[in-house]
Design a protein that fits this description.
Elements: E1 5-10, E2 13-18, E3 21-25, E4 27-31, H1 40-53, E5 58-62, H2 68-72, H3 83-88, E6 97-99, E7 104-106, H4 115-118, H5 127-132, E8 141-145, H6 152-160, E9 163-169, H7 172-191, E10 197-204, H8 211-226, H9 240-248, H10 252-255, H11 260-274
Parallel strand pairs: 4-8, 4-9, 5-7, 5-8, 9-10
Antiparallel strand pairs: 1-2, 2-3, 6-7
Helix pairs in contact: 1-11
Adenosine-5'-triphosphate (ATP) binds next to helix 1 and helix 9.
Length: 281
């Protein structure tokens, strides 16, 4: 009887071979920062769309009761099962998947905010991980957009994820919140998910011409070293195309493929695919 042989990662994707059959398991990223408005949803959307454009199978999970990601890609959240139904066990994850031009998505709406009160069992940190396990063999990448809080939803995302991407603005308040976030990640690693990795910190709304931004970058690099991670080489520039595409509910790459932000996320996607070893900035 052959045991599973996990033979590393190709394009960041986890491949498992058993009895000469290769299974591809999605690599799961949680996009997180408890600070609001730093670009978690935009990064999930931009990265997800670019990974799909590069030929990968991508599932995005909206784990934020605000439902911003669902809105951006015009997903149905009233008359279609959401991640709330999946986590409650009333719908299988693949039955909650909606196909959109950008990527597949499991949506969310405000009902998800009830999770905190509804799930009180001792293993409630594992609800999302157990719920989405069945979807891992269908995708190359699963991206989880998290709410702006260190709540049980965020902890569920950390337990379900292989790695964490932290979008951050280059300002002093963003740096202040990072220590608290790191503590939560470390606690989850210790108790529930020892192999969880911080993939990196992604600077958003970045302007290399600003002196303050350059100073913050220097500090953020030191902070990243302390967190045993890195600042991604690719930084995301400010560009109104993302907010416009979201408001019009048009896929970013359809709305403006030539915008700075679409180009930046394309290059960032390469950094994610290669693990930063041969990205092209
Ligand atoms: N690089 C960028 N350039 C211009 N606008 C941006 C950029 N990134 C994000 N935005 C805009 O900033 C706002 C906040 O972004 P987003 O919703 O992605 O942040 P968030 O961290 O998900 O917020 P929340 O904490 O509320 O979930 C949105 O209006 C978005 O369109
Ligand atoms: Mg958001």
């Amino acid at each position: 009887m052959t045991n599973y042989i996990a033979y590393g990662t190709i394009s960041g994707i986890i491949k498992i071979e058993t009895q000469n059959v290769v299974f591809v398991m999605a690599k799961v990223f949680a996009i997180t920062n408890q600070k609001g408005g730093v670009g978690k949803t935009s990064t999930t959307e931009g990265l997800g769309a670019c990974l799909k454009a590069k030929g990968f199978r991508v599932l995005c999970i909206d784990l934020d009761p605000q439902g911003n990601l669902s809105f951006s890609v015009d997903a149905e959240t009233d008359d279609f099962p959401t991640i709330y139904d999946v986590m409650r066990g009333s719908t299988k994850p693949l039955h909650a998947v909606q196909r959109t031009p950008s990527f597949d998505i499991i949506g969310a709406n405000i009902l998800l905010s009830a999770i905190e009160l509804e799930f009180t069992q001792h293993d409630r940190e594992f609800i999302l991980k157990n719920a989405i396990d069945a979807a891992r063999s269908r995708y190359d990448y699963i991206l989880i957009d998290t709410p702006p809080a260190l709540s049980i939803l965020t902890v569920n995302a950390f337990v379900a994820a292989d790695a964490i991407i932290i979008p951050m603005l280059a300002d002093i308040f963003s740096l202040q919140g990072i220590a608290e976030l790191y503590e939560t990640i470390e606690r989850v690693k210790e108790r529930y998910n020892p192999s969880l990795k911080i993939e990196g910190i992604l600077l958003n709304k970045y302007s290399s011409r600003s002196v303050l931004t350059r100073e913050i970058l220097a500090t953020a690099e030191l902070v990243a070293v302390q967190m045993n991670t890195k600042i991604f080489k690719k930084k995301i520039r400010t560009a109104c195309a993302i907010a416009e595409a979201q408001a019009k509910q048009v896929p970013l790459l359809e709305y403006s493929k030539r915008s700075n932000i679409a180009k930046d996320y394309m290059i960032f996607a390469d950094e994610i695919i290669t693990g930063g070893e041969e990205d092209g900035e």
